[in-house]
Structures are given as structure tokens and as C-alpha cells.
What does this fold into?
Amino acid sequence: MPTHTTRRLLGALAALTTLTLTATACGSGDSDTGAGDTGPKDVAAALEKGGKVTVWAWEPTLKKVVEDFEKKYPKVDVELVNAGTGDKQYTALQNAIAAGSGAPDVAQVEYYALGQFTTAKTVEDLSPYGARKYAKSFTPGPWNAVRQDDGIHALPMDSGPMAFFYNKKVFDKHGIEVPTTWDEYVEAARALHKADPKVFITNDTGDAGATTSLIWQAGGRPYHSRGTSIDVNFDDEGTRKYTATWQKLLDDKLVAPVSSWSDAWYKGLADGTIATLSIGAWMPANFTSGVASASGDWRVAPLPQWTKGDKSSAENGGSSLAVPKAAKNKELAYAFTEFATTGTGATTRVAAGAFPATRADLESKAFLDTEFPYFGGQKANQVFAESARNVGTDWSYLPYQVYANSVFNDTVGKAYVSSTKLADGLKAWQDASVTYGNDQGFTVNK
It folds into this structure.
């Protein structure tokens, strides 16, 4: 649900901290039980003793969680610090770790960025604290994102299963059916733009997160890791499905050349000239706050499918809470992490607007029956929950995905502003990712 942070996956880090390449890079283990479990740490004793916990996070729903935690455990003082969002915080965190001082006890880390910290062995494996017991508590996408190698390196805060947001008023005006496949989506794009040249099916100027999410949904798996050996391949079948479809939209100039989260983007969503969004389930709050004038115009549907009849989905955004190895109070840090991401802490955050990563909240009657006045009274959470159940679980990011995303516009972005084909842009992104990874000491193949 971190909206303005997960929406842009671009910021470059000057350099990764020195990677401990004896660690296994981003592959998920096959089991949630294993040698990593050496018995739970004495978290209860730490809570009884008390102390101070510093949490670096930008997520606003944590404020109430901190208050509730301190009320329940009065001997613990939690300091909530906004050390910057996304890449700004990651840079600060890496600098503190490298300096040997100043690191927080808990840090918010987006799923796409977690690999660089697990590979460098700079975050705790939470298995010895009891984290494995939550294997069935979280939805597949977020749990897979934190369950890397044979360890649990964070606990999920929220998730971003994708959905299709469409302007029903615009669709009805021009007699357009809601597309159920991406082929139908292309036809809808053509029909809308023909009916009104000012109307575009969506906007796109090149976005790493949106691109990888749609490739994920299409069945593409461009990243594979085996220890320090990594494969990067943007020419698999799923990626080709995405590329072929999106190239049609670019060739026919059917997407608005408007950057997401810009003033022009909000205006387009409000006046109907941008008619759809395929994005994470955390988006409704942004509609309510940023596109208030279009209340009642928009609805939510499942993502169009690459193969008719399928129900495939993917994640777009989301964050976890991790405990840096440099934390001073690791048991207390885990206690807060557990409190904030499970049970009443998770429910509190969902009530404040976070999209749940926990099955209990996602499947609760209150959540599923929530009516969204903005979407004409639609029970949109039912669409989001179905999407969460259908997320492919075998996706992985690079252990240096933050860097890779920072050069997306220099490579793939050229397809949006020149005659470069999208497939060629992805090949250039692949080459840049391979070169960087090899320079960092990985063995990267393509």
C-alpha cells in the first residue's frame, strides 16, 4: 500500500554496500522449516525488560500501531522516524550499516529492494525468533517476497495485488465493453481513441515497476538466481506476450504520454482522458484524495488476461519490515515487527487504509463487504482479494533491483520517445543488468 513510494521504482543508489557473496542471492527455499530454526529467541523476556526501539518507516498507518504497542508494552519506547522514502531511506540505511553506527532496529523495505540487503547479509533471518509460524498467515505474493534462501528476512506489511480500474462513465459513453483479455484491451484502446482522440486507454512513459508486474502476470520470469549465479532473460514466452501487446499500443499511439503521479496524470484521471489503470490494490486511497471530482465514475475489475479464461495476477508494490543485523535491540525489534504485521496490528493498519498481506484480514467479512462510495458502492475488496489469491508465487527480483530500476528509463524508456522497439529496450536493460551484476561480483548470464 505505500503509494507514492512503490509507484516509482527508480531512484539509483550510488553503489551497493560490499556484498557478502557467500550468501545465497534471491532464490526462495522450498520449505518453511529447516536448519535456520534454532529455537525462538527470548522475545518475551526482552519485552519484560523493556528498552528503546528505533523504526525507520514512511508508512503513516504505523503511527497508531506504535501507540498501541507502547500501551501494551509500557516498558518499551518506540521512536518512529521518517528517514526518507524508498531509495532515500535505503541509501541512509546502507550508509549507517557501513559506518557501523546509526542503523535503526527496524526498517521498512519494499519487496523489490529486499534482495540487496539479504544478499549482503545485513538483515536478520527472523526464523529463530519464530517467524516461520506465519507461513500460512500471509498471502502468497508477500510471503514469497520475504522468504528467500532458507530464511525469513522480513515480515510483510502490506501487498499490492493488481486490479483493473476503469472509468465506467467514459466506457458507457462510447459503448466500450470492459476487456477481459489483453487483446480485447488493445481493441478497446483503438475504439476509445477513435471515438474521441483526446481519450487514451491509459498513460505510460516507461515504468520499471509496471513493466515487471505485467510481465509477471503474463508468466514471464526474467530473473533466476542460484547462489551467486544469476540469469537475466527478457526473451521468455511471458515477456514476449507483454512486449507484443504493449508494442501495438505504442505503435498506434494509444497510450497518453503522461507520467504517472504528475499533475497532468491526475487531471487525465479526473476528466476521463485517461480511461483505465492496471495497478496495485492500494490505489483507491489515491483516487479518493487526488481525483475526488471523478467520484462515482470509476469501477474495479479483474486484470485482463493474456489467455482467455485464465485468472492470473501479479503484485505491484508493497513493503515489509526488516530487522537490520546492526540493530541494538533485536528481540524488541522483532516483537514490534510481529505486532505491526500480524494480528491486531495488521487489522489496525488495514482500518487506516493499508491493503492487507494477512489472509485473516483479506478474508474477513468486514473487509470483503466494504462498500466504496468512490466506486459507486462497489465491494471492490472482493476483486482485490481474488487477485491476491491468483498471484504467481515463483517471481523473484534481482538482488540489485534498485540499481536495475534506476537505469530503466535509459534503456527501455527509449521505446517511448524514439523508434526503438520495446523488445530492444528490454534487451538493453538486460545487458545493463548483466554488466552491473558481473561488476559487483555475481556471475550473471543472459
Remarks:
- The chain has two domains: 3-160+317-379, 162-315+395-445.
- Confidence is low (pLDDT under 50) at residues 1-39.
- The CA atoms of residues 164 and 278 lie 5 Å apart.
- The chain has 20 helices and 15 strands.
